[in-house]
Design brief:
Number of domains: 3
CATH class of the largest domain: Mainly Beta
Distance between the termini: 88 Å
Oligomer: single chain
CATH topology of the largest domain: Lipocalin
Helix content: 10-25%
Mean pLDDT: 90
Strand order of the largest sheet: 5-6-7-8-9-10-11-13
Radius of gyration: 28 Å
Length: about 180
């Protein structure tokens, strides 16, 4: 009589476990079932993970869009006087690329840069006898509104004289201030 009791108890335990598994999995909703991530974003646990160059709740925003347009630059370099001049930022070849026209109020060729989220990266490049590189951060400003200001830190190195004009890039060394770009 012991063997049939063991069989009955084992069968009951297996049946209970199967029912519990069905109930447990039916209560866990797929959090990504109603989420659509744009531009090949991937939903993970109800949140979109966006590919480089895109952002937003559903990856619906192209990151560089907030940088595009005409900007007024206000700056004073470590070896130059205060200046104010216009620049424009336009789309580049890749989704993360932009070009900057009239950079430093000097360059006649567009400067290459890239955007990742709220950061503008200017890689080391050389034009017209000068080497330049830098990094900038876009932010909201009371006067200019959402994404209406960029704090740009960069350096210009003259290849002939090796003089360095710093705009906040090495502020701890030369006490220079970042360049202020406003829309």
């Amino acid at each position: 009589m012991r063997a049939p009791l063991k069989t009955v108890l084992l069968t009951a335990l297996i049946a209970f476990s199967a029912c519990a598994a069905v109930v447990y999995t039916s209560c866990n909703r797929d959090k990504c079932k109603t989420i659509v991530c744009a531009y090949n974003g991937v939903c993970n646990n109800g949140i979109c993970t966006c590919p480089l160059g895109y952002e937003g709740t559903n990856c619906e925003t192209i990151s560089r869009q907030k940088f595009l347009g005409n900007w007024s630059v206000f700056e004073k370099g470590s070896i130059t006087e205060a200046a104010q001049y216009p620049i424009s930022i336009e789309e580049g070849a890749k989704i993360t690329d932009v070009i900057i026209k009239n950079f430093y109020n000097y360059f006649t060729v567009p400067i290459n840069a890239s955007v990742i989220h709220d950061t503008l990266f200017i890689p080391n490049q050389q034009y017209q006898g000068k080497v330049l590189f830098g990094i900038g951060y876009i932010y909201s400003d009371v006067t200019y509104g959402q994404y209406g200001a960029i704090s740009m830190e960069y350096e210009i190195v003259d290849t002939a004289t090796q003089s360095v004009n710093d705009f906040g890039y090495n502020a701890l060394i030369d006490h220079s201030d970042p360049s202020a770009w406003n829309k």
